[in-house]
Write a structure and sequence with these properties.
With 310 residues, this protein is an alpha/beta fold. It contains ten helices and 13 strands. The strands form four sheets. It has a seven-stranded parallel sheet with strand order 3-2-1-4-5-7-11, sandwiched between helices. It has a two-stranded parallel ribbon with strand order 6-13. A two-stranded parallel ribbon has the order 8-10. The chain binds NADP nicotinamide-adenine-dinucleotide phosphate (NAP). Belongs to the NAD(P)-dependent epimerase/dehydratase family. SDR39U1 subfamily.
Length: 310
């Protein structure tokens, strides 16, 4: 397939791009960065590249972008300002929101205005859709929550649903993506490696995770398998409590799992953004049964072990 990749230059994109090339797809990658600053370990002549900031509406009339949109069989849209890198000031919250909602809205408006009907659009969302809870279990049929991230994901999915009529839309509500070089595990690893790691908060909050290879596997399958349609929780079958996650990480690294890291430290760093980590959410998928997708890493220990073996 000819694929247009939006938001695929980050942590997920780093594995997704080579995996898509391996499947024989032709790629056009869009980024705000210069091509030489992409952190993707593949030769630059293996894909097309456009440097465009898609969060700005005026950039959607770029001729090059329009001609690549017209040529695309599929679009993967994972654009989003990171949610756990900076303190959630009002300005940062606006950026987190705008980077997802506006770009997705501009994408759908442009496709419809230019009468472009890609066969498939894979759009990101997150398990933050459900809000946090220490006790409830959420699946694809559960209602959305009421906090900032829940409202954001709800709106993000609503604008994604403004897709062209004939395009198949697959939305992944992505869980905590695991791999050593980024995301939550990337942040916890250095502390654990020096033997000072421990659960964050009281450890009784749920972590609904997915290994990065499985997220990429799901996206790749959803592109070609026409049965994929609508919303899926991109999470491994067994969510775990933070205290179990921390113990497993310590065991895999042969390091101690020490005292809990006080939630107040995370609140200092992330402000309201700490709530997601400290309260957690237990999310399962009732749509990703084994016949739909076979997880490479269904269990946490193997997922962590695979992520930390180098
Ligand atoms: N990683 C996780 O654990 C996780 C969990 C749930 C959901 N997700 C969702 O999955 C998607 C990809 O995750 P990731 O971990 O790969 O994220 P990432 O490493 O932060 O990459 C984000 C991507 O979005 C683009 N981007 C970032 N901020 C932007 C902004 N303000 N305006 C326009 N473009 C912007 C970046 O493109 P440039 O090349 O232009 O910088 C990059 O390609 C995100 O939407 C995220 O919300 C991730």
């Amino acid at each position: 397939m000819r694929l247009l990749l939006l938001g695929c230059t980050g942590f997920v994109g780093k594995e997704l791009v080579p995996a898509l090339l391996k499947e024989g797809h032709e790629l056009c990658i869009i980024s705000r960065k210069n091509i030489n600053n992409l952190k993707i370990n593949i030769p630059l002549d293996k894909f097309k590249f456009l440097k465009i900031d898609l969060s700005k509406k005026q950039n959607w009339s770029n001729e090059n972008l329009l001609s690549n949109l017209k040529d695309s069989d599929g679009i993967i849209n994972l654009i989003g300002e990171p949610i756990a890198d900076k303190k959630w000031t009002d300005i940062q919250k606006e950026e987190i929101k705008k980077s997802r909602i506006n770009t997705t809205k501009f994408l759908m408006e442009t496709l419809k205005k230019s009468r472009i009907n890609p066969k498939v659009i894979v759009n990101g969302s997150a398990i933050g859709f459900y809000g946090t809870s220490l006790t409830q279990e959420f699946n694809e049929n559960s209602q959305s929550g009421k906090d900032f991230l829940a409202n954001l994901c709800n709106k993000w999915e609503e604008v994604a649903n403004g897709k062209p009529f004939f395009s198949r839309l697959v939305i992944f509500r992505i869980g905590i993506v695991l791999e050593a070089e980024g995301g939550a595990l990337g942040k916890m690893l250095p502390v654990f490696k020096i033997g000072l790691g421990g659960p964050i908060g009281d450890g009784n909050q749920w972590m609904s995770w997915i290994h990065r290879s499985d997220l990429c596997g799901l996206i790749i399958k959803a592109l070609v398998d026409k049965q994929f349609s609508g919303v899926y929780n991109a999470v491994a079958p067994e969510p775990v409590l933070m205290k179990y996650f921390s113990k497993t990480l310590g065991r895999c690294l042969k390091r101690p799992d020490l005292l809990p890291v006080p939630g107040s430290i995370l609140k200092l760093l992330l402000g309201d953004g700490a709530k997601l980590v400290l309260d957690g959410q237990k999310v399962i998928s009732i749509k990703l049964q084994e016949k739909v997708y076979k997880f490479k890493y269904p269990l946490l220990e193997k997922a962590i072990y695979a992520s930390t073996k180098n």
